[in-house]
Amino acid sequence: MGKKIIVAGGGHGGIGCAALLAKKGFDVTVYEKCKRKDIGYDWTDIFDRKAFAAIGMDMPSDDKWCLKNDMTFYGPNMTMALVQNTPVDQLEIQMERKVLYDCIIEYAENCGVKFEFGNAVEAPIMLGNRVVGIKTEKGDVFGDLVIDSCGMNSPVRGQLPEYLGIQHEAQPFERFYVWRGFYEKLECDNIPDKFRLMLFHKGKLGISWVAEEEEYTDVLIGRFIEPDMEEVEKTLAVLREENGHLGEKLVRGGAFAHIPVRQPLAVLVADGYAAIGDCAFMTVPIIGSGIANSMKAAKILAEVICNDKTESYSAAALWKYQKEYWKQIGNSMAPMAAVKLLLTRLQPEEIDYIFEKGILNAEDMTISADTTSLFDMVKDMIEPEALKAKITGLAGNPAVLKKILRMVKDIAAVTVATTLMPASYEVNKVRKWAEMYNKCFKR
Ligand SMILES: Cc1cc2nc3c(=O)[nH]c(=O)nc-3n(C[C@H](O)[C@H](O)[C@H](O)COP(=O)(O)OP(=O)(O)OC[C@H]3O[C@@H](n4cnc5c(N)ncnc54)[C@H](O)[C@@H]3O)c2cc1C
Predict the structure, then answer these.
(1) Which of 73, 83, 131, 220 has the smallest CB count inside 10 Å?
(2) Beta bridge partners of 27
(3) 34 by DSSP, 3-state: which?
(4) Distance 289 CA to ligand 1 centre (A)
(5) Which residue has the higher pLDDT, 287 or 32?
C-alpha cells in the first residue's frame, strides 16, 4: 500500500490532487464536513476549462457547461458602460458548482480516492515540528502528509504553530463578504445588460452584479465590510429599481459566503503539510476566482509528492511545490493584490473619473481564461491612443495619479519580494521572507 495521504476538506484543489495521487498508488482519504448531498453551493461558477486537464480529467459533456457571458462594468454613477469583448476561444466556462463537484468526486472515486463525508476536521496533530495527522469530530487520524483543502477559514492552517511562519487568518480587506441568490426573472421589455457588474454601487465599497439567466436573475452583492441581511435587502431594493427583470422571490441559492481577495499565502508548506486552494488564498485577487488556480496547483503538488523519493514529505521536499506554484501562478497573482489594494483606496467619484477619462477602458476590463497575469491585463494599455487618454486623464487628477503611483510602487515592491523568496526551505529564512512579503500589502 502507498503512503497515507490525508486531504482535510473537499476543496477543488484537494480533490484534484487526491485523484492524481490515488492514480499513482497512494492511499488517499478526503475528510469533508458536509454530507455528500450538501457539498458545494447552489450556484454557478465561471472558470478556465483547462482546470480539468490539469487534474488529468476529460472535459465534462457539453450539457454540463456553457460559455460565460461577457460582463458590462459600471462605475458608481452608472453613466459609463464598459463592455467586455472576449474572443470566444478565450471565454471561460460556466458550470453549476454541484455538477462540478459531482464530476470531480466521481473522477476521484474512480481513481481510488476514499471520501469521509460528514466528518469535520478540527485541528492539526503535531509531533514536534511535524504535522502528523488531523483531529476530526469522529476521532484522530494519522498519515504521512496532510493536504489542507479546508478553504479560507481552515482550522488546520489556523492552528499551526506560529514558528512555522504560516499566516493563520486573512487580514481586513483581504476577505470579500458575499451574498449570492438567484431570483425570479420578471418579464421586462428592456433588459439592459446580460451580465451587469457595478463597482462601488451607491458608494458602497464593493461590487454588485445582476446577470440574466434563462430561468432566473443571478445577484451577487459583495463587500469588504461584512453586510447583514438588512443591508442586502436595501441593496436588492435599489437593484430592482434599476433592473426590471429582478424579481422579489428567491428561487435558488441565497447564502452568505467569503472569498479571499488577497496575495497568495506566503508559506504553503511545513513538515508533513501542504496548503492548497482558498486555504492558500489562491484566488485571483481582483476577481475572486479560485477554482482553476486550485486545480492547476493540484497538478504541481501531486508531481512534487510523487517525485519525493525520500517519501519524507518534509517542508524541504515540499518547498519545490511552493517554488513551482509561485513560478507558474503565484508570481502573477501577488501583483494583482496590489491592484486590489488600489481599489480599496479609491473614492467612488475617482472610479467614475477613471472610467470617464478612459484611464480604464473596455479592453482593460476584458479578463479572459488566458489572462493569467497583470502583464496580460495591461499589455493593451500601451496601445498609443489608449495610452494618450490614460496619461491625459491621470494628469488631470492629482489625487488619482497619487494613488496609482502608490500602486505602481507596491507592485514593484511585491515583484522584488517575490524574486527574493528563499531557494530552499530553512524555517528562519522562510519566516523572515514571509514577513517582508506580507508587509508589501499594507492598506
Ligand atoms: C459567492 C462565490 C462565488 C464564487 N464564484 C467563483 C467563480 O465564479 N469562479 C471561481 O473560480 N471561483 C469562484 N469562487 C471562489 C471559489 O469558490 C474558490 O476559490 C474555490 O472553490 C477554491 O476554494 P477551495 O475549494 O479550496 O475552498 P472551498 O470552496 O472553501 O472548499 C473547502 C471545502 O472544505 C470543506 N471544509 C471547510 N471546513 C472544513 C472542516 N473543518 N472540516 C472538513 N471540511 C471542511 C468545505 O465544506 C468545502 O467543501 C466563488 C466563491 C464564492 C463564495
Answers:
(1) 83
(2) 4
(3) coil
(4) 10
(5) 32
CA angle 26–29–30, rounded 5-degree value = 135
Which tens digits make up the pLDDT trace of 386-438?
Answer: 788 889 999 999 999 999 999 999 999 999 999 999 999 999 999 999 999 99
Provide the 3-class DSSP secondary structure of residue 118: coil
Same domain, 276 and 312: yes
- The yes-or-no verdict on residue 312 having pLDDT over 70 is yes
150, 175, 176: which to mutate for ligand 1, most atoms within 8 A of CB?
150
Q: Which domain holds residue 100?
A: 4-67+89-171+262-334
Beta strand extents in 118-205 (DSSP E only): 121-127, 130-136, 139-142, 145-148, 175-185, 195-199
Is residue 383 assigned to a domain? no
Considering only CA atoms, which residue is closest to atom 12 of ligand 1?
Answer: 289
Phi, psi of 297 (to 5 degrees): -65, -30
Tell whether 159 and 244 lie within a shared domain.
no
- pLDDT tens-digit map of 128-169: 999 999 999 999 999 999 999 999 999 999 999 999 999 999
Are 233 and 111 found together in one domain?
Answer: no
Would you say residue 213 lies in a domain? yes
Residues in contact with ligand 1 by the CB-under-6-Å rule are 9-13, 31-34, 39, 45-47, 120-121, 149-152, 155, 178, 180, 257, 259, 277-279, 283, 288-292, 294
- Total domain count for the chain? 2
* Same domain, yes or no: 96 and 237: no
- By the 10 Å C-beta count (0-12 exposed, 13-18 middle, 19+ buried), 354 is classed as buried
- Residue 72 in domain: no
Q: What is this structure's pTM?
A: 0.95
The CA 336 to ligand 1 mean position distance, Å, reads 20
Residue whose CA lies nearest to ligand 1 atom number 41: 121
* Ligand 1 atom with the shortest distance to the CA of 290: 19
- Pair (251, 270) in one structural domain: no
CATH number assigned to the domain comprising residue 52: 3.50.50.60
Residue 291 CA: nearest ligand 1 atom is 11
